[in-house]
Design a protein that fits this description.
The complex is a heterodimer of chains A (113) and B (109).
Chain A (H helix, E strand, L loop, with lengths): L3 E4 L2 E4 L5 E7 L5 E7 L6 E8 L2 E4 L6 E3 L9 E3 L8 E8 L8 E2 L3 E5 L1
Parallel strand pairs in A: 2-11
Antiparallel strand pairs in A: 1-3, 3-8, 4-5, 4-9, 5-6, 7-8, 9-10, 9-11
Chain B lengths: L3 E4 L2 E5 L4 E7 L5 E7 L5 E7 L2 E5 L2 E6 L4 E6 L8 E8 L6 E3 L3 E6 L1
Parallel strand pairs in B: 2-11
Antiparallel strand pairs in B: 1-3, 3-8, 4-5, 4-9, 6-7, 7-8, 9-10, 9-11
The chains are: A mainly beta (113), B mainly beta (109).
Chain lengths: 113, 109
Amino acid sequence: DGGITQSPKYLFRKEGQNVTLSCEQNLNHDAMYWYRQDPGQGLRLIYYSQIVNDFQKGDIAEGYSVSREKKESFPLTVTSAQKNPTAFYLCASSMGGAPSPLHFGNGTRLTVT
Amino acid sequence: KNEVEQSPQNLTAQEGEFITINCSYSVGISALHWLQQHPGGGIVSLFMLSSGKKKHGRLIATINIQEKHSSLHITASHPRDSAVYICAVRGGSQGNLIFGKGTKLSVKP
């Protein structure tokens, strides 16, 4: 079955460490997105990529980095520069171009202590 | 003021009740999405619409572009419908999605 896989589901890190969240899709989608979800707030866009080897900052990109070396993969690195990294992170993909439905992964809950 | 407002924030219903969740937005849009987030965190896309009405099973979504308002209806609600329902709008053909804060629905047996 086609879909988006995020791993791991839960991730714990010490403050000051970089951590990479995985996102893989086999839907042959061009566009991929990373969102952050905090209690009581709507999803906020961190980074997005419309095509391989290209990506753009979203609304809250500071302290994060991404790469898009393959169409299927869009890993997110939470760096030590991110002031408040504890959150629920969601990866999504879509066909790109004209508005199209989003497909989401099951999310990764990151806790930094 | 948020660009996407949902109401109510929380909703408790008895099994079998007809449910309505509302979404109002303040920007011009090319599409509106309704999403369902399960307690485990995964999100499923329910509808994407830019005009009129769509129906899938017991779920119905409507949009009024002039009034900048959309509703999600659930007929004959069931405890398995318990989830957070999220409205999101896309501003323009290449605009990014703007998300509402969600409506938490709990359906009691």
